[in-house]
Amino acid sequence: MSQKKHFYYRPKTNQHHSPTVRWTFVILGWLFFVLGIIGILLPVMPTAPFILLAAGCWARSSRRFHFWLINHKYFGKYVRDWEENHAVPLYAKWLATIMMAISTVMLFYRLPADMTWAAWLVALVCSGVIVYLFRLPNAE
């Protein structure tokens, strides 16, 4: 009978010295993590950026939460890929592109004519995000 070995990634943390700043980062980390979970349920809200922001906040405030997130069953690999190589899986790039395109098209369809400028602004920001994403290395 073979036993499954567990590998735990050891995080590189850069904890702040001030307790006030650390607590602020802990709270922001949980806020971003909850927003990321909401993003799983709502197709127009992103998940990955919020999870990565949570990881960044916890790296500066809580070894325990950061360690938990980077070894998480679902999010851990993405956070480790980002922290080690600033890499994003190709399918995630395409999924983000498709979701941003759908959301932007919906804005053009749903906004009144005098608010079209807002849809164009969102389209411009989304285009910038897409260019940025595809310039990043692909995670394996």
UniProtKB/TrEMBL annotation:
The keyword Membrane applies. Keywords: Cell inner membrane, Cell membrane, Membrane, Transmembrane, Transmembrane helix. It is found in: Cell inner membrane. The chain crosses the membrane at residues 21-44, 91-111, 117-134. It holds the Pfam family DUF454. GO terms for cellular component: plasma membrane. Its main location: membrane. It is a multi-pass membrane protein. The keyword Transport does not apply. This is Inner membrane protein. The lineage of its organism: Bacteria, Pseudomonadati, Pseudomonadota, Gammaproteobacteria, Moraxellales.
